[in-house]
Amino acid sequence: MPALNRIGTIREDEAVICVLKDFNPTLRNPERSDNYPVIRYLKTLARQSRSSRKSIILMGPEAVVPSDLREEMVVCDFPLPSTSEIERIITSVIPPNLLQVSGLALEQLIRACQGLTRQRVERILVRALAAKGKVSEGDIDLVLEEKKQYIRQTEILEFYNPSETLQNVGVENLKAWIRERRNSFSVQAHAYGLPSPKGILLVGIQGTGKSLCAKTIAREWRMPLLRLDVGRLFGGIVGESESRVRQMIQIAEAMAPCVLWIDELDKAFGGVNSEFSGDSGTSKRVFGSLITWMQEKTKPVFIVATANNVRILPAELLRKGRFDEIFFVNLPNQREREEIFQVHIQRLRPNRVRDFAYPELAMASENFSGAEIEQTIYDAMHMAFNQDPPREFTQEDILGAIRQTVPLAAIARDQIQDLKAWAAESGARTASRDQHLVHELQTLVQKRGLGPIEVDSPSSFKFSN
Question: What is the Cα–Cα distance from 249 to 303, expressed in whole angstroms?
Fold first, then answer.
């Protein structure tokens, strides 16, 4: 309060800029009895300053605007350092004779620093310099580890460095779509006039590999992967949720080009248009901010969203412009189940890949999801390991584990049929190149009288309404 009193005594004809620091705790809790007089006096000073030459600047790590000050304040967000600014930081902090990176290595170091604050970049460089007396290509891993820690501290985003490749997934149509757009973020694509891809929505029941697809896209395009936990966007303090959305957008755009993975979108925004949300409209404001950014964003942030129950999502989220494409991820077919078994055996027992009959395993595991197939292998390993003495697991162990497993498809049969009906109605593309699924969805369309189907081949399967 003494600082505000001092500002109040400044003459109206005196040109002055008043900078107030560390006011966020007061602004965040305006209802407290000792904070409200401060908020009220700030409002009075702001109105008085309209006819004077003094300006008041509040500085803080995040934008906190109490309802009493919304009409009096303008929020200015300072972006995280750009690539050119990061390069200047590197060259100014590290002496030229100690900076042993150039060309492609320097470009990779700069990209690794994207999304970090100026202070963190400087701190990492100083740490590397103190440890080895130089900054080299090997310090890129140090930067990436620091980035993981920083992003984890936001409690909103998680940084992933995926190792999964497209060979780990069997969704052929989705693979083809991803590969076609592999170079769409390049300078040449921009010069050609191509807009950067916006994103895709993957719809399917649990365990069908939607999350794995997000990781493979980032790996295929050689981009950093950020996972957004939408539930963490919602804070208990007034204005905190909106501030977290802005923070998430700022970090994602600072790291662009990148892949932003929004997992289980339906759990966060299902029923957001309901009249009985019970959160004073916070979820609607967060949802509105998010979809507006998805529509209007200019930075190359590719969104991979996943959903299990797509019918409860708001219609405005699914319209063209938010996503480039919507894919329906069905349970794996016979060939895909063979590939899934082989991928896991290759990872767990690379010297025994030829010891298993994958067609038989795939036939026995009909209607199993990829996650359930992986679990049956682990169950077989447990059975073999707990023998006396322990032995290697065999084909019969896996078949025994399959017989003891009740797949989710047997329990959620109605949900799967409903998702297929939705895919037929909405024109969602099938992620797999599955002729049986194509025929099944065609039949659903004809039964519901949804109009003609445009099908040239399973790989280009799509409905038109």
Answer: 12
Q: Going by CATH, does the domain composed of 83-153 fall within 1.10.8?
A: yes
- Cis amide leading into 359 (omega within 30): no
Please name the residues in contact with 204: beta carbons below 8 A apart, sequence gap of 6 or more. 210, 308, 328, 329, 330, 419, 431
Q: Which residue bears the tokens 């019918």?
A: 311
Rounded CA separation 285/246 (Å):
12
DSSP H stretches of helix in 332-432: 334-348, 358-364, 370-385, 395-403, 408-411, 413-426
Encoded amino acid at 69, one letter: L
Q: Write out pLDDT tens, residues 63-88.
A: 777 777 778 888 887 888 888 899 99
CB 234 within 8 A of CB 278: no
Predicted model pTM = 0.73
- Please say whether the beta carbons of 260 and 224 come within 8 A: no
Residue 271's nearest CA partner among 319, 313, 232, 316 is 313
Q: Name the 3-class secondary structure at 97.
A: helix
Nearest residue to 99 (alpha-carbon basis) of 139, 65, 71: 139
The CA-based dihedral angle spanning residues 242, 225, 423, 336, taken in that order and rounded to the nearest 10 degrees: -160
Phi-psi region of 109 (alpha: psi -120 to 50; beta: other; left: phi over 0): alpha
Partners of 301 in the β-ladder: 258
Which residue shows structure tokens 């003094």? 54
pLDDT in tens, 149-183: 888 887 788 888 777 776 656 678 888 899 898 88
Nearest-angstrom CA–CA distance, 115 and 148:
10
Instruction: Return the CATH number of 334-366+370-406, one of 1.10.600, 3.40.50, 1.10.390, 1.10.8.
Output: 1.10.8
Residue 448 DSSP SS3:
helix
Is beta strand 258-262 parallel, antiparallel or unpaired with respect to 54-59?
unpaired
